[in-house]
Specification:
It is a single chain. The protein is built from five helices and four strands. It is an alpha+beta fold. Among the domains are: about 60 residues; about 60 residues, no CATH class; about 45 residues, no CATH class. The strands form two sheets. It has a two-stranded antiparallel ribbon with strand order 1-2. Strand 1 and strand 2 form a beta hairpin.
Length: about 280
């Protein structure tokens, strides 16, 4: 907006509108510059990934990490900017923000006015409805100790002691419950969280669990899962059509000071494209 400093209006209201317009224009310009810088950086990364030397190319996961950092920085800049005037903001439509899943539990926080009388005229207020908005909350996971209390009874007639048998534990003489074992397994193999990081997370909650302890738990849990693995392999290899994938990975080669190439073979079956009756695996 071009402003003639020699012909500024004398009306205060007109001057206020002019200042608000200048501020809104400046905010839009700042947002445009930030978006341009973000897009230029994305273009440079994509160009390097497409045309750069092999050692400089990035895989998709590294690119996604870069995009996450860019989006976070852009959000930080947008948050630091003053909000635009109410009349310049377009109304938010319902489709812009996805609704939260209905299966999540809801906890209502009720907010009410301090007085039931109108502050304008002193009349009595009556209920005409309510406005509801939602926020997604997170309840941090917590550890707990399950105490197994077994009552002991003695017989005065013969001197014997009777007690309910102790429940079987998934790991002999271990502290982990089935739920904790499942959490460690899912964190390691589904969320790719190494055991040393899990040990650090447990330490933040005041529980010391060494990596060796977690490794022993995983080994014991894998022993329980061996029958399931055998049945799954039997089901997969019984199919007349198999899908196979060979993934080479570097593996440490002790004693040689370097790595060697290891291979991961993955097999799967899926008869759904041929209307097969068996489930995929």
């Amino acid at each position: 907006m071009n402003v003639d400093l020699a012909a500024l209006p004398d009306d205060v209201e007109t001057l206020q509108k002019l200042v608000r317009s200048l501020v809104a224009e400046r905010i839009s310009l700042s947002e445009a510059k930030a978006e341009i810088e973000r897009l230029n950086l994305i273009i440079k990364r994509l160009q390097r990934n497409q045309y750069g030397r092999r050692a400089e190319r990035l895989d998709d996961e590294q690119l996604q990490l870069g995009f996450e950092d860019l989006n976070a920085d852009l959000a930080r800049v947008e948050t630091s900017l003053p909000p635009p005037p109410a009349e310049s903001r377009p109304p938010r439509t319902q489709s812009e923000r996805p609704s939260l899943p209905v299966h999540l539990p809801r906890e209502d926080v009720r907010l009410d006015v301090e007085h039931q009388t109108c502050p304008c005229c002193g009349g009595i207020l009556h209920l005409i409805g309510e406005t509801t908005s939602e926020m997604l909350d997170h309840v941090p996971a917590r550890l707990r100790v399950i105490r197994i209390c077994r009552t002991r009874y003695g017989c005065r007639a013969c001197g014997t002691i009777h007690q309910a048998p102790a429940p079987e534990r998934p790991i002999a003489k271990g502290l982990a419950s089935p739920a904790l074992l499942a959490h460690v397994l899912v964190s390691k193999y589904c969320d790719h969280l190494p055991l040393y990081r899990q040990s650090q997370i447990f330490a933040r909650q005041g529980v010391t669990l060494d990596r060796s302890t977690l490794a022993n738990w995983i080994g014991g849990a894998c022993w329980w899962l061996e029958p399931l693995q055998s049945k799954l392999a039997e089901h997969i290899f019984a199919s007349q059509k198999l899908f196979a994938d060979d993934t080479p990975i570097p593996v440490l080669d002790p004693g040689r000071g370097r790595t060697k190439t290891g291979r991961l073979w993955v097999y799967a079956r899926d008869d759904r494209p041929w209307n097969g009756p068996d489930p995929p695996a």
